[in-house]
Amino acid sequence: MRVFPWGFWLLCVASAPARGDSGSKARSCAEVRQLYGAKGFSLSGVPQAEISGEHLRICPQGYTCCTSEMEENFANKSRSEFEAMMKEAGRSVQATLTAQHRSFDSYFQDLLNKSEKALYDAFPSMYGELYTQNVKVFKDLYSELRRYYRSSNINLEEALNEFWTRLLERLFKLLNPQYHITDEYLDCMVKHAEQHRPFGEVPRDLKVKATRAFIAARSYAQGFLVGSDVVRKVSQVSLSHECTRAIMKLMYCPHCRGMSSVKPCNNYCLNVVKGCLANQADLSTEWKYLMDSLIGVADRIDGPYNVDTVIGTIHMRIAEAISNLQENKDSITSKVFQGCGNPKISTKGSSSEDKKRRGKVTLEAKSSAQALEMLVLDAKGNLTALKTYWITLPSSLCSKKVMASSASDDKCWNGMTKGSYLPEVMGDGLANQINNPEVEVDITKPDMTIRQQIMQLKIMTNRLGNANIGNDVDFQDTSDDMSGSGSGDSCPDDVCGKRLSKSPSTRQPETHAIPKQSGHGVHGASSRSLPSASLLLLLLWVAAMAPQHLWR
């Protein structure tokens, strides 16, 4: 009986929370009150000095300056602040990609506009009615080229073929006004055009070069927009409940413990953020592929595909083609008559307009190759810097936003108190969070919004890959495409089904691994587990009652 009071006293002393340097006097909560008010919350009910922390659900339950309401408000605040950090980081990447798109798009559109303007300025004096009566044919060509570049569902080769066909029909009639040429006769002439090559090698050469240049240009421009859109959508993904608790513990629990000046340990911050952004880190592989593919196409645009020369000289190639037709008019007409027969003589008479206006082409092209070279150089630098964005995001947020301590600091906030942080830093990505000590992550349930964006990156990379070798690609909206839960994008087979469980008593039983069956479930499964559960409860009761008998 004499042992009991002493044992009880020792137990109370051992379990009493330490108050630090203040001894029995409670520390002031002035710093926390100031912070709490600065965050826009009312100071009503906020303690003036430390109180017992048994009511806390996230922060350590020692002496504290936070009530339950304050803890909840701080948790909500930490959630909104962390999501704002994510969006701010994302906006920086979006701004970079959007700026690159805007620069290239402006350059390319200007290139096309200058070519069209040069054609409109020079052709009237060069070709007279050969041009003035066919203005719409030229306007339609440039209109189709712009529509293709803007990702409309247009077959570029067919558009170019249609232009040359229409131009040949119009010019053949104007060059032979003494004949009455019917639509049926023109159809026959067009069938033999490939054989006679009235425009020389220009149509074939321009089709090959322009197609490659336009495919590369529009894929390149689209790649920047897709990358920016992926970042925007991923930045809007909400934090999980587990992540919100971890962020609160990281950012505001030290304030509740009266340690406002203590910075979070760097490795502790990394584990929290890596756990929260586990799904985002899985974007890294496909994101890097996209950046590499854009760099590859950029080299093509400024190299073999020679966009500046090809697009900037379209009007000159058309003029060259028309000159070929004028210079070889007689032989081409003779060949057409041989193949399609002699058309009837027209009663309108002939015109010498074309004879007065025909002449050697003297058009000049103003090169903007240096501007393109600078654009590509700048883009490649930015794309290279963005390759590691998703896997460096946690360290960037910890160092620049959370303001974590240096890696060597052993007097930092480790989630419980001021000291060193011992757990190792987790790897990147969802599968590597199975043993994350700070954030409970279900690696079997990848975020579907992010999986969709991974698929968007794959699709765009494939388009760029095709563009890199000159193959046309179909630009359709695939925003609703999903990667599928059965693909390799979810998680590796050796880790699927595993889940971290730090608090078994508060977790719901896992049922996703149990196969679905009709009736009342898997027969025998629950009945076999009942004896073990009952035995466990009995042992726990005996263990709880044993000390009471010992004291007696």
Automatic annotation (TrEMBL):
Query: Where located?
Result: Cell membrane; Secreted, Extracellular space
PROSITE patterns, A to Z = GLYPICAN
Region annotation Disordered: where it falls in the sequence = 475-526
Q: Which InterPro entries match?
A: Glypican, Glypican_CS
User: Which keywords does this Swiss-Prot/TrEMBL entry list?
Assistant: Cell membrane, Disulfide bond, Glycoprotein, GPI-anchor, Heparan sulfate, Lipoprotein, Membrane, Proteoglycan, Secreted, Signal
Which Gene Ontology MF annotations are present? fibroblast growth factor binding
Q: How does it sit in the membrane?
A: Lipid-anchor; GPI-anchor
Q: Which GO terms describe its cellular component?
A: cell surface; extracellular region; plasma membrane; side of membrane; synapse
**Top-level taxon of origin:** Eukaryota
**What ranges does the record list as Low complexity composition bias?**
481-494
Residues spanning the signal sequence: 1-20
Q: Name one GO biological process term.
A: negative regulation of fibroblast growth factor receptor signaling pathway
Q: Which family does it belong to?
A: Belongs to the glypican family.
Q: What does this protein do?
A: Cell surface proteoglycan.
What the entry lists under PANTHER family is as follows:
GLYPICAN, GLYPICAN-1
Q: What is this protein called?
A: Glypican-1
Species this protein is from: Zosterops hypoxanthus
Output the lineage of the source organism: Eukaryota, Metazoa, Chordata, Craniata, Vertebrata
The gene is Gpc1
